Amino acid sequence: MKKIVLLLIILMSIAGNCFASDNRWDWVASCSGENDWYIDTETVQFYMGSSNWIHSKHNCAKVWLLNCDYTDDVLRLSRVEIDLDCVMIRFLSEAVYKSDKTQVSSDSTADAEFKNIIPETVGEEVYKKIRKLKNNA
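Above: the chain's sequence. Below: its structure in token form.
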């Protein structure tokens, strides 16, 4: 029992170091204790039609995705667009920060192509979470 409590304390302290603890960031997935992914539930935008003409009549969403990479000790904040009808995603921008919140890099890829969301990946978990948010809205 003591080991479980100790493990929970360690996990909570790691998550607390990743970002401020509140209900804004909703956990999506983890990978072997090396990465955690969250979505920003306060800024999700649902709309009809992407600026990409092929997806112009589809249900879409834009969301901020936070990746806490404990191996490289960085935070990756990405703006993504998801086509909910085609089950596709594209990355619009990304900023990388050190754990002390100093920026390492940033990139804007607004003209990025949509890519299929691969089953059994973090991308699919993000898609499912966004789909669920839309259905509950």
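The mean pLDDT is 84.
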